[in-house]
Design a protein that fits this description.
Layout (H helix, E strand, L loop, with lengths): L5 H23 L2 H17 L11 H22 L19 H15 L3 H12 L4 H8 L3 H21 L5
């Protein structure tokens, strides 16, 4: 996929805009700002398309890196120049701390988990997240405990690789 032509940009937009919008909504908590962030992401990508190197990562990963910068810039602008607010507005909410990095990290882990095989994902969730024992899970799945251990080992390796593909540095 390339951003060298308007058609390439349209293909990239169709493929990634939905996910970008979801992350922008979680980060900015405002539909209009999220839409602007996605638009700005593609504008910045178009302007700097000559700097994209597919050898370093996928177009998707590059777009998410740009989106992160756009979200941070948008958040900073809102804090530097607060918008006038009607104090009687029921939509007034306390300030939300900058949590963009946590949102991006959460998305990256979710995406990496989706890339695992169902067997690997199941073992990771049950053993690492829910704290179940290897023996208990082996009995439930009716497979040897050694198989559960090896699945957990290879699942962690696959998760690490998937995170690296998404641009997460250890």
């Amino acid at each position: 996929m390339s951003l060298d032509t308007p058609d390439g940009v349209q293909v990239a937009f169709d493929a990634h805009a939905g996910e970008l919008f979801g992350v922008a909504m979680r980060g900015l908590n405002d539909r209009g700002l999220a839409e602007d962030a996605v638009q700005e992401t593609f504008l910045r990508a178009w302007r700097s398309r000559d700097r994209f190197d597919p050898a370093l990562g996928s177009l998707r990963t590059w777009l998410f890196a740009i989106l992160r910068s756009v979200i941070v810039d948008s958040s900073r602008r809102r804090h530097v120049r607060p918008q006038p607010v009607d104090p009687s507005s029921p939509r007034l909410q306390p300030a939300v701390p900058d949590h963009i990095d946590a949102v991006i990290a959460q998305w990256q882990v979710e995406e990496a988990m989706r890339r695992l095989s169902p067997e690997h994902r199941q073992v990771l969730v049950e053993v690492r997240l829910k704290g179940r024992s290897i023996e208990d899970l082996a009995q439930e799945l009716r497979i040897p405990g050694g198989t559960v251990k090896s699945r957990a080992h290879y699942a962690l390796r696959a998760l690490r690789l998937a995170l690296e593909e998404l641009g997460v540095q250890p």
